[in-house]
């Protein structure tokens, strides 16, 4: 028994490939737990960052600087009345958010946090991710239909039309990145997520910079399409409040609505992971080739620890700036505790055995975090596209450019 | 002697603070509210006849039914109700008054022709503003100016809503500010200041007292 | 006699030429959608009934009157001075302008002239109010189109103007700043310094708003060509203000029929060419800059002197009528006052720019998409307090 459990350790494949159910389950729980925590953190970050863009503070009361706000939101949503419209199709109404949730979470089984840090590594990894994330369109249509009211129906039809339109452009951009994986010695490309990053490692270039500017353009197309795919600003007409149709999730309240929100944020993180894997070198540290060698490796391996220590420092600066009033004592203590925890994690990350294992995960997560921040930044800055303009951009601008990039990548790949 | 129950903080009679001149001196003559009290100022402004090429041209056609005057530098025409619609058309077509600034009414219940209909017109080309007034009786309908200036659409609806004056030929004459089923025309002088259509309020807002 | 609004909404739509009521909305191509009166984007209690063919608008009908307070009836029961505060509450965003129009109309009736110093103070406050009104317009209009951030920036900067108002007359929004005959309050200690500080503080802020929006590709796509109205239509419909100027007509009451002492100041009238939403946006941004120009000239030249003309305490204007209009931030705001010689006006008619401009909504959104209706309502810059009075 114990042998079975420990048999995986020391292997250099993912538990899914090794067939070790125990460790696969452990990885699944860790990843899903991590994604759920990430969604909550994203919720907090969105409110705070958006507020700071708009010269206001955002949540400040629930926990120091609003850090416990997502928990308060979750409690509120769980305890809300579950309203189902009278004529709604109950089964479909119930299952729609679950479909979106399952589709958004299932893709995480192939997301590569490191060369062996993934739940499994399907040899059709990227195809699997794109395919399963498309299933959420079904959930959107079901949600609009089951609400039995024409505003949600129109909203869901628009939303689904938008999502499937941008998937085409996304797919084309992905294919051009896959083409680049085949430019190695053996001439065979790979669809597996870990294989794509390893191809970048082997070719010693992030696909972002390969065949400049083709890789860059493909990345930009994907970056725009992924924002539209997840119904986020500036493509959020189907769910904006000041428009006429309030979106497919109008009739959902409380827990069911929070499932939609969870699914949306999980989808955002998932497509960002695709972008990171395909173009930004996945788990590789920055400048793996120009700044290579033992010393640089050491320097970069210290970055995770330093970044957590930096966050701890910010937390302690926040503690110093707290008003010296009895009312704020609990918040000050809480923030100090939070800072202490961050500091301890940072220190722990300096230890050599931890350092080596954590490196890959840290760089991957850091790159995805940059994308999350970009999502929030877009929301704060851009007005909304009108629906017909949105569809025009998807079909008449992104798709032709994506096809063009694909053809040029193929030609250049053959020539060089 | 408290003469004016509605004037602002009127002090009791004989107070020294009243500034010199003007109407308070005339107040003892008005023991009750008289709508047409004459001003105490001897050389007050008065309407003077308005001479202009446009007026001359119109007078040649409609001499009997019209009067053109100027008061405080603002020109106005007072017309018979029968010729008003044609004159308005002429003003738009020939005299370039292409902008209908406003259309409103005033209610004089003690007069035989109770309502004053007032058009305020402006010409961009001539940078000139003119007022056209006519008098109609209660219950009399008036031809609509919507065909002349599309602005008049909502303006006439408001006059209908507030005064009850119907306009023939208006595409969609119904109440605009008050709810559709309201009875009564509030800006008439016989409509009280806090009067409401109590039945409507009771039915639609569910307030028992109707207020 | 039940109210048709609650019982039969289609009774309102006579002019939209409805046929048989639809059985289900999927049976026919036309859809009747109701926006408001409670809606985040209609800037107040406005109800718009849209007849749609898919996404395209075939016709609209505005139902107003939810904020009707009977201001004109009230005027007949108050004296001229007592009615002054009521006037602010109509266009509550630009209250100073409302007060200016009313006071000047009554001054015309009484045949008095406000002294020069009062006129300068009036011009400064009115132009500051113009900037504040346009800032509120910009924030809410951008929010309707989806850009959330300019709202917060404009409201923050508007605070500076409201602080000046508060220091001057005690109120930020419904200021009741002027009196018949001039101004009641002398400028406070440091008024000129505050205004000059604002004049230095504000131009980079307009640049900030422009940076966020003017060349933003999404903003341009949402506003260029949307809600077009030609100059001829504007004149025929009586539309005034920035909407008229954006259609190419260079007309501003401050230049055409000057009031207060606007003829002493040197400023330009910005115009647009196409009469679409983008041009209206540019015209209002330029108007803010021109307003700064006027304030700069005014604050440097304020003369000393009395601030109130000799008006009797109990005002009984001679029998007669007068119509006086000003260029409010939203268009031509006019007051038609009929006096019967008593202390109370016989009739006060307010010619509201938003009411007349709102009529043009139907023409502007024919053939546009639903999302554009919201952009056009925003660009007309209506305040329901003024539409309904």
Task: Give a structural overview.
The complex is a heterotrimer of chains A (416), B (211) and C (389). Chain A is mainly alpha-helical and 416 residues long. Chain A has one domain. Chain A is 68% helix and 0% strand. Chain A has 15 helices and no strands. Chain B has helices at 23-26, 53-62, 81-93, 152-163, 198-205; strands at 48-49, 66-71, 74-79, 99-107, 115-123, 128-136, 142-143, 167-168. A 6-stranded mixed sheet of chain B has the order 1-2-3-6-5-4. In chain C, 47% of the residues lie in helices and 12% in strands. Classes of the chains: A mainly alpha (416), B alpha/beta (211), C alpha+beta (389). Chains in contact: A-C, B-C. Chains B and C meet through helix 1, strand 4, helix 4 and helix 5 of B and helix 1, helix 2, helix 10, strand 6 and strand 7 of C.
Q: What gap, in angstroms, lies between the N and C termini of chain A?
A: 53 Å
Quaternary structure of the protein: heterotrimer
**Hey, roughly how much beta strand do the residues of chain A contain?**
under 5%
Largest inter-chain contact set: B-C, 69 and 67 residues
What is the number of helical segments of chain A per DSSP (H or I, 4+ residues)? 15
Q: Which characteristics define this entry?
A:
heterotrimer; A: 416 residues; mainly alpha; 68% helix; globular; C: 389 residues; alpha+beta; Cytochrome-c3 Hydrogenase, chain B; 2 domains; 3-stranded antiparallel β-sheet; 12% strand; disordered N terminus
Describe this structure in a few short sentences:
By secondary structure, chain A is mostly helical.
List the helices and strands and how they pair.
The complex is a heterotrimer of chains A (416), B (211) and C (389).
Chain A (H helix, E strand, L loop, with lengths): L1 H5 L8 H4 L2 H33 L15 H10 L11 H17 L18 H10 L1 H11 L3 H32 L11 H11 L10 H16 L25 H25 L14 H28 L7 H20 L3 H30 L5 H29 L1
Helix pairs in contact in A: 3-11, 3-14, 5-7, 5-11, 7-8, 8-10, 8-15, 10-11, 10-15, 11-14, 12-13, 12-14
Chain B lengths: L22 H4 L21 E2 L3 H10 L3 E6 L2 E6 L1 H13 L5 E9 L7 E9 L4 E9 L5 E2 L8 H12 L3 E2 L29 H8 L6
Parallel strand pairs in B: 3-6, 7-8
Antiparallel strand pairs in B: 1-2, 2-3, 4-5, 5-6
Chain C lengths: L3 H4 L22 E6 L11 E7 L2 E8 L7 H5 L4 H9 L6 H16 L5 H30 L3 H21 L8 E2 L2 E2 L7 H11 L1 H11 L3 H7 L7 H7 L4 H5 L6 H4 L20 H24 L19 E9 L2 E9 L7 E5 L1 H7 L1 H5 L4 H11 L3 H5 L1
Antiparallel strand pairs in C: 1-2, 2-3, 4-5, 6-7, 7-8
């Amino acid at each position: 028994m114990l042998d079975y459990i420990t048999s995986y350790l020391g292997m250099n494949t993912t538990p899914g490939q090794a067939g070790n159910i125990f460790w696969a389950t452990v990885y699944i729980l860790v990843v899903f737990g991590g994604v759920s925590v990430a969604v909550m953190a994203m919720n907090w970050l969105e409110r705070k960052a958006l507020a700071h863009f708009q010269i206001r503070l955002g949540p400040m009361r629930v926990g120091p600087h609003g850090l416990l706000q997502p928990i308060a939101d979750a409690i509120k949503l769980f305890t809300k009345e579950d309203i189902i419209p009278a004529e709604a199709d109950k089964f479909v109404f119930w299952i729609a958010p679950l479909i979106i949730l399952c589709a958004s979470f299932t893709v995480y089984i192939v997301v590569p946090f490191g060369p062996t840090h993934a739940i499994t590594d399907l040899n059709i990894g990227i195809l699997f991710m794109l395919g399963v994330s498309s299933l959420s369109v079904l959930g959107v249509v079901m949600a609009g239909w089951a609400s039995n009211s024409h505003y949600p129906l129109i909203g869901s039809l628009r939303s689904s039309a938008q999502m499937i339109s941008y998937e085409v452009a996304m797919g084309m951009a992905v294919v051009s990145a896959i083409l680049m994986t085949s430019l190695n010695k053996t001439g065979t490309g790979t669809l597996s997520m870990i294989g794509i990053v390893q191809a970048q490692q082997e070719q010693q270039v992030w696909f972002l910079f390969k065949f400049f500017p083709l890789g860059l353009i493909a990345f930009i197309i994907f970056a725009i399409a992924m924002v539209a795919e997840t119904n986020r600003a500036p493509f959020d007409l189907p769910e904006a409040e000041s428009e006429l149709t309030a979106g497919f999730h109008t009739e959902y309240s409380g827990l069911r609505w929070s499932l939609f929100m969870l699914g949306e944020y999980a989808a955002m993180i998932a497509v960002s992971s695709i972008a990171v894997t395909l173009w930004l070198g996945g788990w590789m540290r920055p400048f793996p080739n120009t700044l290579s060698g033992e010393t640089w490796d050491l320097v970069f391996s210290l970055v995770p620890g330093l970044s957590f220590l930096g966050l701890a420092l910010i937390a302690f600066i926040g503690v110093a700036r707290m008003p010296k009033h009895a009312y704020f004592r609990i918040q000050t203590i809480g923030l100090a505790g939070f800072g202490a925890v961050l500091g301890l994690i940072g220190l722990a990350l300096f230890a050599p055995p931890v350092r080596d294992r954590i490196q890959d995960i840290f760089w991957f997560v850091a790159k995805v975090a940059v994308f999350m921040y970009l999502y929030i930044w877009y929301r704060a800055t851009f007005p909304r596209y009108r629906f017909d303009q949105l569809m025009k951009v998807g079909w008449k601008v992104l798709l032709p450019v994506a096809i063009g990039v694909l053809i040029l990548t193929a030609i250049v790949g053959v020539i060089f | 002697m408290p003469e004016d129950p509605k004037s602002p903080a009127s002090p009791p009679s004989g107070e020294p603070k009243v500034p010199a001149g003007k109407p308070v001196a005339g107040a003892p003559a008005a023991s009750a509210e008289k709508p047409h009290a004459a001003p105490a100022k001897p050389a007050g402004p008065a309407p003077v006849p308005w001479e202009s090429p446009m007026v001359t041209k119109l007078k040649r056609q409609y001499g009997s039914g019209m009067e053109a005057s100027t008061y405080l530098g603002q020109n106005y025409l007072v017309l018979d109700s029968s010729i008003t619609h044609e004159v308005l058309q002429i003003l738009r077509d020939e005299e370039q008054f292409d902008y209908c600034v406003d259309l409103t009414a005033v209610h004089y219940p003690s007069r035989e022709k109770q309502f004053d209909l007032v058009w305020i017109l402006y010409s961009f080309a001539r940078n000139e503003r003119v007022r056209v007034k006519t008098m109609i009786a209660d219950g009399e309908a008036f031809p609509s100016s919507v065909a002349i200036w599309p602005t008049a659409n909502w303006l006439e609806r408001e006059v209908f809503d507030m005064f009850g004056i119907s306009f023939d030929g208006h595409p969609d004459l119904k109440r605009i500010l008050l709810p559709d089923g309201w009875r009564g025309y509030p800006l008439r002088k016989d409509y009280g200041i806090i009067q409401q259509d109590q039945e409507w309020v009771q039915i639609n807002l569910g307030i028992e007292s109707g207020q | 006699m039940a109210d048709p609004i609650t019982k039969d909404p289609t009774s309102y739509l006579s002019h939209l030429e409805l046929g048989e009521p639809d059985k289900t909305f999927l049976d026919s191509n036309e859809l009747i959608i109701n926006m408001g009166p409670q809606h985040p984007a209609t800037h107040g209690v406005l109800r718009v009934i849209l007849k749609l063919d898919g996404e395209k608008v075939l016709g609209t009908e505005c139902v107003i009157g939810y904020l009707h307070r009977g201001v004109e009836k009230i005027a007949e029961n108050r004296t001229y001075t007592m009615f002054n505060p009521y006037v602010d509450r109509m266009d509550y965003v630009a209250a100073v302008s409302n007060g200016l129009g009313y006071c000047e109309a009554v001054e015309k009736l009484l045949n008095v002239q406000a002294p020069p110093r009062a006129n300068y103070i009036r011009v400064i406050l009115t132009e500051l109010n113009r900037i504040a009104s346009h800032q509120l317009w910009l924030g809410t209009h951008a929010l309707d189109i989806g850009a959330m951030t300019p709202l917060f920036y404009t409201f923050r900067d508007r605070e500076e103007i409201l602080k000046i108002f508060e220091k001057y007359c005690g109120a930020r929004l419904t200021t009741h700043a002027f009196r018949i005959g001039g101004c009641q309050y002398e400028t406070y200690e440091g008024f000129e310094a505050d205004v000059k500080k604002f004049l230095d503080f504000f131009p980079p802020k307009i640049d900030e708003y422009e940076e966020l929006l003017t060349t933003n590709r999404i903003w341009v796509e949402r506003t260029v060509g949307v809600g077009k109205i030609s100059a001829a239509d504007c004149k025929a419909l009586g539309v005034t203000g920035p909407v008229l100027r954006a259609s190419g007509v260079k007309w501003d009451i401050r230049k055409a029929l000057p009031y207060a002492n606007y003829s002493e100041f040197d400023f330009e009238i910005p115009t647009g060419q196409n009469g679409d939403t983008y041009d209206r946006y540019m015209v209002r941004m330029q108007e803010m800059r021109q307003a700064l120009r006027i304030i700069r000239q005014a604050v440097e030249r304020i003369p000393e002197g009395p601030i109130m003309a000799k008006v009797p305490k109990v005002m009984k204007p001679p029998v007669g009528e007068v119509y006086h209009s000003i260029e409010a931030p939203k268009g031509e705001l006019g007051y038609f006052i009929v006096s019967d010689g008593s202390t109370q006006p016989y009739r006060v008619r307010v010619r509201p720019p938003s009411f007349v401009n709102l009529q043009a909504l139907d023409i502007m959104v024919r053939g546009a998409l639903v999302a554009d209706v919201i952009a056009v309502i925003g660009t007309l810059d209506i305040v329901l307090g003024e539409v309904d009075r």
